[in-house]
Amino acid sequence: MSLNPEEFADFRAFLKEVAGIDLGDNKQYLVTTRIRRVLLEYGLDSVSELTQRIKRSSERELRQRVIDAMTTNETFWFRDIYPFEYLKSTIFPELKAKKGPGTIKVWSAACSSGQEPYSISITVDEFIRETLGVSALGLDVVATDLSSEILAQAKQGVYDKLSISRGMSDKRLREYFKATDDKQWAINSDIKQRIRFRPLNLQDSFLSLGKFDIVFCRNVLIYFSSDLKTDILKRIHATLKPGAYLFLGSSESLAGASDLFEMVHCKPGVVYRAK
User: Fold this and answer.
1) Could you tell me which of 252, 241, 245, 236 has the C-alpha nearest to residue 271?
2) Over the stretch 165-223, which tens digit does the pLDDT of each residue have?
3) CA within 20 to 30 Å of 153's CA: 55, 116, 187, 198, which one?
4) What is the longest distance spanned by two Cα atoms in the chain?
């Protein structure tokens, strides 16, 4: 299936409008690869026909299918390691001392199939087990994503062998998962119950989410324009309590919102603290 420049430009503009995803130049192959199945499912002959359909207000289901197809959902357990080690060594002890029996509130933005929020929940469980004098620590994780399809997978908390192999150690697998009859792995209910999954487009308002002690917004801002990236970071800052923490992806920066945060080194990476 070929994609001419006009078709690509029209599709690209619509995807940016509805999802904030800013496809780079010469990404025609990416588009045709990811939406080929959608075209077959809906009996459509071209990207041009698809774009015209998804512009109609009545085509919500088709529009969501396109967003699901175009959203990158590459993710790993305990991705980059250092954010989770820093939670355990520094942030959780700090917040425990400050809050006492209070609950730590975390937002996992663009949570994909759930590996990040579940990794956070496992980390707090390990912190409780490994820290003398700590018998409990309340944790409330709000996990959001644009893709309704991927959120449905995340809520199930069931993973195949390939998904588990991406960053999950044998020790954690034994402690926090149960094998299913169909040779998959289901995360334990006590890890799962700390997390609330909900759909959210990062272009939309965050006001309903409340205030957070920690926000993970990792490896998603790279898909947005610089202006939208700055806007999202400023609105994330508004959800953070004073002195709260923001984790970005290893290749991401604060763009035009650097005056709202201070950088904290947690070798080998960094975390940002809200001013």
Assistant:
1) 245
2) 999 999 999 999 999 999 999 999 999 999 999 999 999 999 999 999 999 999 999 88
3) 55
4) 64
| Residue 110 domain flag | yes
In this structure, the answer to whether residues 14 and 113 fall within a common structural domain is no
CATH of the domain at 187: 3.40.50.150
Compute the distance between CA of residue 225 and CA of residue 52 in angstroms, rounded to an integer. 24
**Tokens 């619509």 map to which residue?**
14
pLDDT tens figures, 119-147: 999 999 999 999 987 888 899 999 999 88
The beta-carbon contacts of 230-233 under 8 Å, at least 24 apart in sequence, are 230/255, 230/256, 230/257, 232/202, 232/203, 233/257, 233/260
Cα separation of 204 and 275, whole Å?
23
Give the total number of structural domains in the chain.
2
Q: Structure pTM?
A: 0.88
The parent domain of residue 270 ranges over 82-274
Residue at 196 is within a domain? yes
String of DSSP letters for 200-267: --TTS--GGG--EEEEEE-S-GGGS-HHHHHHHHHHHHHHEEEEEEEEE-TT---GGGGGGEEEEEET
Instruction: Kindly report, residue by residue over 143-180, the tens digit of the pLDDT.
Output: 999 888 889 999 999 999 999 999 999 999 999 999 99
Average pLDDT value over all residues in the chain: 92
The reply to whether 130 and 257 lie within a common domain is yes
User: What are the angstrom distances between the C-alpha of 131 and each of 121, 123, 260?
Assistant: 16, 12, 32
